[in-house]
């Protein structure tokens, strides 16, 4: 008989990760009845079972579970909870916990989420490293007119960007592989043709996030999409097209690439406006509670967007020094956001969720339901 390892501190860790009301839960199952997705996962008591794992301290079963990623944090379950246990936020804490567990370094994500001033220390370290690299590789400062590419040579910025994105992609894939080993284990018992066929679920849910539209708070779906496609356009402009955007020419509003940048900025601004207002007003359950990592994510992204806007304005007005300073700040903030958020915190849910849907389908094909 297989022994079950219990972590008596698991509930305390979850409280640190945002599940402040978990001790109010008395296992009535109202959350499972309310959840619009519970019927999809083999009739399992979702999300109740995850909460039960946490309360019992059954860490291994929790880490082997995919359900936290199959929750879209719509808050319907929390609205129906008679004890105010806020199951939606418990599942959000579970996702933060799993991000820590998937982290292949075993340290970075834990340090950020569970250490006092972890986020501040991480940002300061990355900002310092990025600044030093910039000072070493920057070009000459032309002060009589704006020469942005001379100040920040495109070969340097482009090469650094490609290296960063490649490293982050490797980090995310390593984390996803750990997720796969924890949850699926192996493809034994699954025909390879079916495993390949089911791969379509990953881009489908990554690009559309369609299940989020089934939550009662429909606006959240569109706000989420705005932020996502703001990312997508920014990535296209920064990675494959940077050589055409980082030039010594002024920012031209009629240029096709400038139009893409403006659309990306508008999507970010609208999405950020509603997210910040929602978290301040706390009218909807999806924004009622904000963990430290939520606010770090929001304000870092907002600062990246605003610094990018100001760079474009100063560049258009031909203010050399303000342009150079703001662009340098923009790069520093972007580096902090990408390195901290993509593999180690909130952004990673964009990767984990579609893979979780794919892995869940594989596990159901194996005949084991959603759980190991």
Condensed summary:
The protein contains 19 helices and no strands.
Task: Describe the fold and architecture.
With 372 residues, the protein is mainly α. It has helices spanning 10-16, 30-34, 48-56, 59-63, 67-70, 76-80, 87-102, 108-114, 118-137, 148-151, 154-183, 192-197, 201-208, 218-238, 242-245, 256-281, 292-317, 320-344, 349-365. The protein has two domains: 10-102, Fumarate Reductase Iron-sulfur Protein, Chain B, domain 2, CATH 1.10.1060; 117-358, no CATH class. It is built from 19 helices and no strands. α16 runs antiparallel to α17 (292-317). The chain is elongated. The protein starts with 9 loop residues before the first helix and ends in a 7-residue tail after the last helix. The model has no long low-confidence stretch (mean pLDDT 90).
Q: What is the helical fraction, as a range of percent?
A: 55-70%
- Could you state the order of secondary-structure elements as H and E? HHHHHHHHHHHHHHHHHHH
Number of DSSP strand runs: 0
In what range is the share of β-strand residues?
Answer: under 5%
How many strands, which pairing sense, and closed or not: the largest β-sheet? none
The number of distinct helices, counting runs of at least 4 residues, comes to: 19
User: What is the residue-averaged pLDDT?
Assistant: 90
Q: What structural class is derived from the secondary structure elements?
A: mainly alpha
Shape: elongated
Question: Which regions have little confidence, pLDDT < 50, spanning 5+ residues?
Answer: none
